[in-house]
Amino acid sequence: MPYQFWVYINRQSLFPGGWMHDVGLPITHAFDLLVPTDAGEKRLIMQAFDRTVLVLDLEAREQWAVRRANLGTDAAWVAGLTPSFTPAPAAPADLYPDAPKRIEVSLDQQWLWAYQGDVLVLDAPVSTGKDRFETPRGTWRIYAKYARKTLRGTSRGETWHVPDVPSVMFYWGGFAIHGVYWHDRFGTGERYSHGCVGIAPHDAGLLFGWAPEGTLVTVR
């Protein structure tokens, strides 16, 4: 086990039950992995444990070098794959061109609704921010859209780098509604994100084609 992993799993703030309870014993040796980046390739070190997988980024700052693996993209890289997607589906018909569009998200129900005027155009299950990364409540407007975008960040001891995220619509700072290809646990009450509103790729494609910049987004 790399020394950095040993230090990480002994952080009481991350694993209050202790590493044996919260992480478990190693079930693989640590191994090297080359992953694609915007600049070319990056070397990572991974190791699987009973209840998690850890990743060491040797190029990251020391305090953020270790993170828990993203079991979608990281697993694809281990298999030598690059995530791929089908084209976005056609957007719902714009039946009421003069009516304002808005999107509402319920954190309690883990659900999203899209309205044009008072007419429901689309609804879909979502997965929002996990503990310590809760999705904020409020009302904003979509200010930027990307058909594909690499999402990355570092916060509260976690670092993430997810390539080719589909149908990304930013509505406040780094918070966005976007497609998720690395899990399918939407509308179950299980929250997986670092604060964004995650939605299945097909639903995200519909919403992306329907909602222009300036569309109102309310999270409640």
Give structural notes.
The protein has helices spanning about 5-10, 20, 75-80, 200-210; strands at about 30-35, 40-50, 55, 65-70, 100-105, 110-115, 120-125, 140, 145-155, 160-170, 175-180, 195-200, 215-220. A hairpin with a 2-residue loop joins strand 6 (about 110-115) and strand 7 (about 120-125). The protein is built from four helices and 13 strands. The chain is mainly beta. Strands 8-13-5-6-7-12-11-10-9 form a nine-stranded mixed β-sheet. The protein has a four-stranded antiparallel β-sheet with strand order 1-2-3-4, with helices on one face. It has two domains: about 5-80, no CATH class; about 100-220, L,D-transpeptidase catalytic domain-like. Helices cover about 10% and strands about 40% of the residues. The chain is elongated and about 60 Å long. The model has no long low-confidence stretch (mean pLDDT about 85).
Give a quick summary of the entry.
By secondary structure, the protein is mostly beta strands. The protein has helices spanning 3-9, 19-22, 73-78, 201-210; strands at 31-37, 40-48, 53-57, 66-68, 101-106, 111-116, 119-127, 138-141, 144-155, 158-172, 175-179, 197-199, 216-219.
